[in-house]
Write a structure and sequence with these properties.
This protein has 738 residues and is an alpha/beta fold. The chain contains 25 helices and 26 strands.
């Protein structure tokens, strides 16, 4: 984006003051209030799941536009030729679903306005699908796409102890990918940017060139800055402004102040815990920390106005004991109001590489209860003169951000794509798989069918027929003896002549547009190596879903690509089907020692080595669920444990560099040893799809087919009618919701 252009500025948020609580909403408020009229009139706020009245918004921010987006409504999935999975597909990943809804809203918005600058918050990964589609299709190719550091869900997980579920790990993977794939990472302080880099494990050379420093402008309610802080005195209250969250360390405040009160009996002023938007249980939890004899000295203040909040800050020594803060806006504003500040020096927002200087504009303590008590004593004993902090100032990010991407190029189809199709006794499905490849809109392909010494007569016949196929792009490679799936894929990759390789099992199907789309994506993104697509599942015996129109599959799999955390528990990288650069498959052959999960192993090793994935939002891969599939056939719990442990043994990272991965390993081992199955939705939010039920039903139907076929034929007629009626009703509801 060239400086001086007057395209639109778009900000995505889940919060906005004064309509919703939260620090991100406060930051949005300060930015919008600080903009000049020309910037505000070209600004659109995309507010997610907040439903703010448009007239109230315009009264607060005259000239700006508001776009309310609700992610609770399953709409717009099929418009413009899309095949987006429904909300029920995003098991353990509600934030992935929310990012898909935001992407669709931004597509519609981009058809009305020209977007020059688009900013997402780091918390919630709302930019995930937009950033992936930018890499996949060139969406908003001329805009600057930024992620601003607040305090992401991942950072907060590192700041306090709390239960960690699989959804948290998926959430963290999505946040990480957003930060890795955006054009610019907007940060307020060097310490915060460095702490974020370390938590997510980014390389310095990858991280620093994309950093853009900008602190959210402060809004002081016209109170004006205090030149110096008020002097300390025995009558000065000691206050903390907090929502009582654990990482804000209200416990340190209560215990440290209590210790100070016992040491300095002459200090008669109260301790104030000023809170808002907190539950009674949170207040009770903190109240229990107050010693009974000191209870009258601790006052919990809730529901006060902004003017009263300012008044209390002016007259107090204000403590900020929290472990993490993206900027410490409240501390800056308190300093400018004339408050005396005591800051946790271990918080990156208040460290040495920040404007905060101990004994100059604040007092710092070491984050401990004893350290706070000693610093409170220092405050009254020395009564040091503290001046107001100097607020860092930087240009608006859209003024200093230029597009760092090359123009999107339409690929000429010159790159050869090798499709590797491993085959073993799947002759009944092979012809349909080959047809889906021949139907690709990208014609420069070679199809390598590697037969792993099939023994089934129908399969042998199918391979013989392929050997005489009219299409010269089809080649058959016959192995002399059965080597297994991993070895068969490796043979195909070694034989491949293409710049790119698509892997596709002999019973599955691929959308006609996928190869062309994926090749163009990798041609335009030389730093990326893999293109991943969601999978839509259809049952063996059911007609293959059409490649156009509204298709609701009975089940789905969606992926995050670079599943650094969740990928150690479940395969959130990809199915076996993806488009690769051949060079990366040469570096990472399939592990032939594994009897299962060889594709999971491959992606785990690629991801650990830093290779990058582009993740499609549309379903381009059609997966046939068969009763005798190697992966989906029912297996004993002991076998599942062995297979999972073998995967970890051969493919997990050699060094657990990120702290949160230690948690993942424990959760993963427990899940595997307990045989935990992750359910998938089948009929919306009411019913659940269960592999064991489906496979049991299929087994029964196969037995009936052999023994009493007349019963099966009648049952199939009834079942087919019911299934068609359900699909018709589902499609009608989808069309009506568009």
């Amino acid at each position: 984006m060239a400086v001086g252009r007057m395209g639109h500025l778009v900000f995505v948020s889940t919060e906005l003051f004064p309509f919703t609580p939260g620090d991100i909403g406060q930051s949005m408020f300060r930015m919008l209030r600080a903009m000049d009229a020309s910037d505000l009139t070209r600004t659109t706020v995309v507010l997610v799941d907040a439903a703010v009245d448009v007239h109230a918004f315009q009264a607060s921010y005259p000239g700006a536009d508001l776009l309310n987006v609700s992610t609770s409504v399953d709409t717009d999935r099929f418009s413009q030729g899309r095949q987006h999975p429904p909300q029920r597909a995003y098991t353990h990943g509600k934030w992935h679903w929310r990012s898909a809804v935001v992407f669709r809203a931004l597509v519609a918005l981009a058809q009305r306005i020209s977007i020059d600058y688009l900013e997402f918050p780091d918390r919630g990964a709302l930019g995930f699908c937009t950033l992936q589609e930018r890499r996949l299709t060139g969406f908003l190719a001329n805009a600057a796409l930024a992620v601003r550091l607040h305090s992401s869900h991942t950072v907060l997980l590192h700041a306090e102890a709390q239960p960690v579920a699989l959804e948290d790990l998926n959430h963290s993977d999505l946040e990480r990918k957003c930060l890795r794939d955006c054009d610019r990472v907007v940060f307020a302080l060097d310490g915060i940017a460095e702490a974020t880099r370390e938590i997510f494990g980014f390389a310095v050379e990858e991280w620093k060139p994309r950093l853009l420093q900008h602190a959210v402008p402060l809004h002081r309610n016209d109170a004006g800055p205090g030149v110096h802080a008020a002097p300390a005195s025995p009558l000065q209250p000691i206050a903390v402004f907090t929502r009582l969250r654990r990482f804000e360390r209200p416990d340190v405040f209560v215990r440290g102040v209590a210790r100070f009160f016992r040491a300095r009996r002459t200090h008669a002023a109260p301790a104030l815990l000023v809170t808002d938007d907190v539950g009674a249980s949170d207040v009770a939890r903190v109240r229990r920390l107050v010693p009974a004899d000191l209870a009258p000295r601790f006052e919990f203040v809730t529901g006060i106005s902004e003017s009263e909040r300012i008044s209390r800050a002016r007259m107090s020594t204000v403590v900020f004991p929290g472990l993490v803060d993206a900027f410490g806006t409240a501390a800056y504003e308190a300093s400018l109001l004339g408050a005396r500040l005591i800051l946790n020096g271990t918080n990156p927002a208040f460290g040495d590489a920040t404007p905060w200087q101990d004994g100059v504009n604040c007092l710092k303590f070491d984050g401990t209860v004893g350290g706070l008590a000693l610093t409170l004593e220092r405050n009254v004993d020395r009564n040091e003169t503290l001046r107001a902090v100097e607020v860092p100032v930087a240009p608006w990010p859209w003024l200093s951000t230029r597009s760092v991407r090359e123009p999107w190029r339409t690929h000429d189809g010159a790159a050869l794509v090798s499709v590797v199709v491993p085959h073993y006794n799947l002759g009944a499905f092979l012809a349909a798989t080959i047809e889906s490849l021949i139907a690709q809109t990208y014609s420069n392909i070679e199809i390598l069918v590697v037969d792993d010494a099939s023994t089934n007569p129908d399969s042998i016949r199918a391979i013989d027929q392929l050997g005489h196929a009219a299409d010269a792009r089809v080649r058959v490679l016959r192995q002399q003896g059965n080597a297994g799936l991993a070895a068969t894929r490796n043979v195909g990759v070694r034989t491949a002549c293409g710049k790119y390789v698509l892997t596709l099992d002999a019973d599955d199907l691929i959308h006609p547009l996928f190869v062309a789309l994926a090749v163009e994506a990798l041609e335009n993104n030389p730093d990326f190596d893999v293109v991943v697509t969601p999978a839509g599942y259809f049952l063996d015996g059911e007609a293959a879903p059409p490649s156009e129109g509204h298709v609701d599959f009975f089940s789905y799999s969606v992926f995050s690509g670079e599943a650094v955390l969740a990928g150690l528990i479940e395969n959130k990288f990809s199915t076996a089907t993806a488009l690769f650069r051949k060079t990366v498959l040469d570096l990472f052959p399939y592990d032939e020692s594994l009897g299962c999960y060889e594709d999971w192993s491959l992606f785990m090793r690629m991801c650990e080595a830093g290779h990058r994935f582009i993740v499609a939002t549309d379903v381009f891969f059609l997966y046939r669920k068969r009763i005798d599939s190697m992966v989906h056939a029912p297996r004993e719990a002991a076998a599942r444990r062995i297979e999972y442990n073998d995967l970890i043994r051969t493919s997990a990272p050699a060094a657990i560099r990120q702290k949160s991965r230690q948690l993942v390993m424990g959760i993963g081992s427990a899940a595997a040893s307990d045989g935990v199955a992750l359910p998938r939705d089948l009929f919306g939010n009411s019913g659940r799809y269960d592999d064991s039920v489906v496979f049991a039903a299929l087994k029964v139907s196969r037995w009936i087919e052999r023994r009493i076929p007349w019963l099966l034929r009648g049952g199939l007629l009834v079942a087919g009618g019911l299934w068609r009626a359900y699909r018709a009703l589902s499609n009608r509801r989808s069309v009506q919701s568009e």
